[in-house]
Task: structure prediction
Amino acid sequence: MSFWTDPNVRILPKFRFSLDFGGIIWWVKTAQFPKLSQEKSEVQTGFGGNVIYKPGPAKWQPITVTFADVMIPQKEGMTKRDMSTQMFWFGIANVLDDHQQDEGFIISQTNGFYDNGFDDAWITAKFTEDGRKINKIEIEKQYQSELDANEKWILENVLVSEIDFGGGDYNSDDLNEISVTLSYDIARPETTDEASPFFSTDNADAETTYKKSVNARKQKRKPRKTKTITTVND
Result:
């Protein structure tokens, strides 16, 4: 019997995940989970002996996350205005760069040029003490409620090492995409016994919101009734 036909095995689909950074839940298009690599060295055992491998230091590899470029509503205690995904990540990179200009490259000629879009208390809470890295970013796997389990990856001490802001194209109606490459010092999984609230049929609020959006779309598509006026000639 193949494992995917075994009723006791629950398949965990790739599309059920979200990314949490600073209180914003991002329904990103694609995201890599952490990648761990370990260096190795070759050692020869005696004169003319066999070559064996010895483990070297382990290293977490950078991952890339792709976001849809959407307008993010202002959130009290976090952002001071509405901003697009593009401008959000530019602002994050600029805030980090303000604390790295002695060693890194300069994004803006003026220090703090773009951090006015964020709440100062939020920046202090979500960045490391020296301001050079993001405290943590969480990638949560959204499982079915009947599994009674919830897992997520927590990335700590995160650097934004590369951003691709996408581009414009008059010949396409596709969404603009923002690709962000994250380098991190630590990655660790966290597991709880509580099921994820997402993708749950018991989530009344989500169900109500979904039904309202469906009804709104149906109402919008509903053709208007036209009145036929008949006249009687004397």
Remarks:
- The chain has one domain: 14-195.
- The radius of gyration is 25 Å.
- Helices lie at 85-98, 120-126, 204-221.
- The chain has a mean pLDDT of 76.
